[in-house]
Write the structure tokens for this entry.
Amino acid sequence: MKVTQVALCPTEASTAAGRPALTPELLAASGARYSRNNEGLESILAKIDPNNLDKSVDSIFRMIDYGHQSIADMAPVAMFIDGISMWLAYHVWTLCPTAGGQESSTRYIKLSPESLIAPTQLGIAENAQAEWHRLMQECFAAYSHALEYWEAIAAQHPEVARIPRSLLDDPSEKAARQVARMQRNYGFDRARNFLPVAVATNMMLIMSARAWVQLCQHLLSHPLSEAKTLGEALRHELELCAPRMLKHATAKDSMQNGIEADLEALRQTARRGTFTYLQENASPYECPPTPQLQVMLPAGIKEEALAHDLIFHDNRYAWIGESLKRTAVRFGWEAVAFAEIRDLNRHRTGTKHCPFIPVGFYSALDQVPQDLMNSMTTHLPDYLATLSLTGKRISVTAHEHLIEGDYSYVYWTLLGTQYAFEHVTTADKFIYEAELRTGTGAHFRYAKHLHDALSLWYEKFPATRGLILEGSAEPE
């Protein structure tokens, strides 16, 4: 694991225009002056000693408490985080939903067993490490075999990958490369379910010093060793750009107690028994992703007002009226694979809820086209079903570790392991998410989830059908 704080510097155009450049803490300090007087920026900057920036910060903070959260919000900090598990990256996003950033994608990158994080770094018990390593290797073998099969299907039957005929008929090298990329992506999207969440990923985040402090507090209070290691690394880098915030970036009893209470609640729920689709004789192993939708309209608002709110809505970033913005929406699914939860969790608004108890295992068996079932010489359905058993067994193993109170159980799960998932937000944000997640380049699986949620929406508000820009997840 490696964390690197990256400082911002002025552009050449900004420097040439004589615009000021301030450190994160000095920027926050200068902004803080606005709350105490109306002297303007030039007067504030005149008080700064360019040869002693720290002294300038302190002279301002003598009057204003830097610990005040609104002040810490004005200190921007960028961090690049390399080599953390996919699970921890997901967890960081749950804690920092409004951060700007990116993460390495399983949709475009082929992963290998060498990318597994060492079990000692994950806190896997010493007496379980050999079994964990064996199972993870088994998962990677399943991933590799599934990828080969799905890419073969895309090559033999390009229509299932929705590769445009114009590209297939184009003799140019550029078109050939694009076709090969689309075939690979078709395979990646379906094979990734066998990837362990203990695979290393990289992410970049930019947010305020306040948000970094809150993240450190949570990670340092967490029982998982990987979370603590990341918290310490972030704290070390935060010292480079916002040293006055370090006193706040520590473990907190309230957070530690709250996290442990949540984990114990999960354990007690798990003790009631394995979910139906993970039981010994279960077949199939996929828990149906049954959608759920609850809508609370503002007083006096009727369906016609919701439709009227969309009359100028010509793209997903375009105008949406006030009635939809005031409408509360709770939506979710009984089961979503973790691969898709990682994407759905990234939406900034509202509150997401995902009780981390396995309920099934998804392996894309539904993606085998029915008209190819009898004509295929690869026997893909039977083979994938055999591979799916691997995912099911490992998801059950994770469930057993949770029951035992071993909170490193999360590292025994796969991207295809399914969980319940819920999102509470407002209708305009729900519509944006539905349009994004069914649009061009959308993953086929979360596109299905949002199509299903929209079907429930249309049952309640049929007048909005056709005004919401629902896509068909055509490939890029």
Q: What stands out?
A: Residues 276-464 form a domain with the Gyrase A; domain 2 fold (CATH 3.30.1360.170).
